[in-house]
Amino acid sequence: MQESEQGEKRYRQPLVSVLGHVDSGKTTLLDYIRKTRVAAREPGSITQHVGASEIPTDVIYSICEPVMKALNLKFEIKTGGLLFIDLPGHEVFSNLRRRGGSVADIAILVIDINGGVQPQTVESINILRERRVPFVIALNKIDTIYGWKSEDGRPFILAEREQPPSVIAELEKRLYRVVDQLAALEIYADRYDRVKDFTKTFAIIPTSAVTGEGIPDLLTMLIGLVQRYMLDRLEVTTNEGRGTILEVKQQHGLGTVITAIIYDGILRKDDTIVLAGLNGPVVTKVKALLIPEPLQEMRATKKFRRVDEVSAAAGVMISAPRLDDVLAGSPLYVVRDMSKLEDVKRDVQEEVDRIIIKTDRIGVIVKADTLGTLEALIAQLEKEGIPIRRADIGDVSKTDVFEASVIKSKEERYAAILAFNVKVTEDAKREAQSRRIPIFQEVVIYRLIEDFENYLEELKRKEEERVLSIAVFPAEILVLPDFVFRRSDPAIVGVEVLRGRIRPGYPLINENGKRVGTILDIQYEGNRILEATAGQRVAISIKGGVVGRNVKEGKKLYTEVSEFEDEKARSIYFSKMDEDEKELYRRILWIRYSRGGSSA
Ligand code: GDP
Q: I need a labelling partner for 153 at 20 to 30 A (CA). Which of 70, 179, 209, 493 fits?
């Protein structure tokens, strides 16, 4: 336990992540929040971060005061300010992973008040649920409501009072439309100032990322929820820094560096750290810790300065040897007591092994660029009921194609590769082409899954078409006396379809189970038709039929029904029959096998 000099517990700033559908206003919202911070403070007095922006406590107090006053709220901020992850969206969020959850303490789900709940809103909710991250909802773009009177940066709770009744009515209508859409996903939400119990109801804060209206309310909710429900989680429990890797990248003059979010303890220059790598745990020593120069994010060029240590929560760039193999989404553990090194290495490897899938099951091959996106992708696929044979990090290789082609003979539809934000090697491309293994490539998780699901649908449709084009459905027909138009080559007779349906091309058997011939044509009132059903009287020509020998007036004929060995074809075939047809099917098989062979 890390305690300050007074012996009090130390709490770190909560980490806030922003998610939502494309174009809902995530980037604009983050930009507005960052500007607030810059405007309200002397630039030099803020701790700078890599990949995150800190809104210090005093800024929060001054912005939130009018809201707290209007709502009669009082609380003391014990955690320090809010640390916003700079890049919005689920891909970054995925890499904020931490065993069994997320490094993000709370999230803002942005919903466009005009668009409502959209596909990526649902996906965001799924990911937030799966990682068990609480969230508030910013119902954004309120300034687009016709007649809305804007005033920069005003709390929503005060702005609302200035709006004409028609605007309020429209706002309420759109708000409760979103409430209904969320309820359908079992997310029970209400406008934040109407929520009685925040453990049961999600808070919706109407905002405009452009005018900043509602942002004081949003910050008040975030900090209020954190103070009330999340203090335990924010307690700094160790000295040895712990973090997660957001990015592995090239930095001019430094080579490969990593950016990390430190959520517990302290990270120092020269510390030994353990990370997850493509080929097992990476043990290395921190050469330099870099944070941005004050206000650098407002400038075009990035300048960094070296520091000796950072303590949680912090976003930092790390320069060290042997970082090339490190995986984004990997844990970072500082080891100061070297006797524990092997244990930590084992922990890190276990964490990777928990995510990567290597089985001999029938299922798809999954490749992703980082541990975080792989984990998120696997969770989504499992939710959709798509089985996985292998799931691993890295480009799509020839080996992956071989793996997929093993499945092809067993369950063709799963002989496919799903690749998220990775390349396909030339070898693999060639091999996939010659073995006809489809590779799905995407940079948006939900689209990757959607593409694959569409492909499965298409395969199903094609298979159905194929089965139906060769299927012979059951029919019982009566050869009508005195309606013989031609005795043979081909025989043409009048029949009544008693049960089922007949089509040209259907083979016929007689009551003794003997093959009679094949229907060539069906005519109804002088016209050729492609199908005759129960109750219809038609003329049919039968290739191979000879009236008086195998086709007898007043006797019945049956179609020689299909017998599909393949289970899938059989189930498609039966799905197209009603109960009577199924009963007739069984009867025809009985006729065929119990009587077949006796003379006609
Ligand atoms: P993101 O894809 O979720 O990051 O969305 P952006 O922040 O890029 O916003 C998409 C578009 O919506 C941009 O043209 C923004 O200017 C606009 N926008 C975002 N928030 C608001 C808002 O509150 N009001 C209005 N009028 N436009 C907004």
A: 179
